[in-house]
Amino acid sequence: xxGVVVRQYDIPANDFTVAGEASSNVxxxxxxxxxSPDIVKRTSIAMYEAEINAVIHGNGGQALVEIDTDKIYIRxxxxxxxxxxxxxxxxxxxxxxxDSIREMGFGAGMGLSNIKKHADQLKIDTEIDKxxxxxxxxxxxxxxGV
Amino acid sequence: xxxxxxxSVTLNTNMCKGCTNCIKYCPTEAxxxxxxxxxxxxERCIDxxxxxxxxxxxxxxxxxDSLDTIKNYKYKIALPAPALYGQYGPEFSRExxxxxxxxxxxxxxxxxxxxxxxxxxxxxxxMKNKDIKKPVxxxxxxxxxxxxxxxxxxxxxxxxxxxxxxxxxxxxxRQEVHxxxxxxxxxxxxxxxxxxxxxVTSVKAPYESQKSNVDAVIxxxxxxxxxxxxxxxxxxxxxAPFSLSSAIGVSWAGTGGESSAINEGxxxxxxxxxxxxxxxxxxxxxxxxxxxxxxxxxCPEGCLGGPLTVENPFIxxxxxxxxxxxxxxxxxxxxxxxxxxxxxxxxxKSTVEYxxxxxxxxxMEKALExxxxxxxxxxxxxxxxxxxxxxxxxxxxxxDIVRGIAKETDCIFKLKERLNIIANQLHQIE
Lengths: 146, 430
Description:
The structure holds two protein chains of two kinds. Chain A is an alpha+beta fold.
């Protein structure tokens, strides 16, 4: 593992009171490590969206965070229903969130596209009835050829 | 003294018992107890005054200037913060308070409320600019601005970049006195009558080392009684021979005053540093995109709850409400408001900068190593956050150990572990 800092968080299902705690915590760690504010913000937004997705759609799940000298890797996994049409789900404005969630200001269908916008690398593994794993990587320095 | 780290909030070591009340409440974890006395880590302190309010032994205080300071100037100008009006009950009207200030030795009184109206006016214009970053966060509370500099660098661009009412009042009062009476600028002394410790710091060590137009800051609590005595001696006054600000400016002393005066959009008023911390946390996650303006004040009930006030903030709020009801809201604004057309004059000349004082190391590799060490030490501690070691939490102690300013046996449970081992060893020798 070398110099990697690792964090694990549980993401509870349908509990908006603690949603976002993990990403907020990661934001603090990155600031302490001296990562530039812009990168911290991008990471924190991408992670927050993934966290909220797991809360809304995935019946909760787990977050794994690994911070290295040059990048942060975040894996948010849930054992929820999976995503039927990933390409469609990536489109801005597409959402399967029920009205009750939308009324709370979530579920605008910007989640996955927002993660994509803020992450340097995004890989989503999903299987119907098994769950979804969102892999996010953000580099601390601009990457050549990425 | 290092000007960069001047602070109004200081500790009276004689009165400090070394208890752990203040370390627990400090929003930037800026206090430690060392050798049974509190120590303020200067670069972390934002002068919010929470520790002054919380200390049961009154060992924390705000350094301000004494009333005697005014004697050093030929022409003395008082700038009363609107919070001053909330300190006195309905029998003491604003007119009486302002006149009493004159009897106290000031030659001229310029209400900060007047300047607050100018800021209101400018904020309205500022908010119409399509290029600004929303939600706009008020910069009226200096503790909040410093809090953002330390903890929320991403929100610096959201700050309302307009001078504070205090600074505008100082500049305008000088100009007004010069124009009206021909007093030379060098003869003037400008004194802010303050509910706020952070404002003292703003005057003595302004953001990014700019120069303040205020010469000295006098605490409301230091003149509260004298002013009251003066007012009691005088007959009631029904009308004042000078222009007073309208209700909008006066309402700035409490919460919701600044934000309600802005005409458009969704505005929220947040007060109390913990609440401010929560809302900024939400803003930085991008969760407040539908909010246009955040009025954020560090003290409970805003400036009325400032550490240099006397009256209970909730009573002060009622007093202020009463004062505002006396003013017809539609009454003509004072002339000063008309001067506010030129917004550029009052826009910040430079912005505040991120102060990354929580950073563990300049070198990323070393920082990571330190973070791992902190994790390791924290895991070995007891998660009690009891504060007996002098740090606000177990994790803060672990950070201090890694930063080299504490040791593991500062934790009394760790010390006990160590003593048990030694006791066992002694036992074996026998």
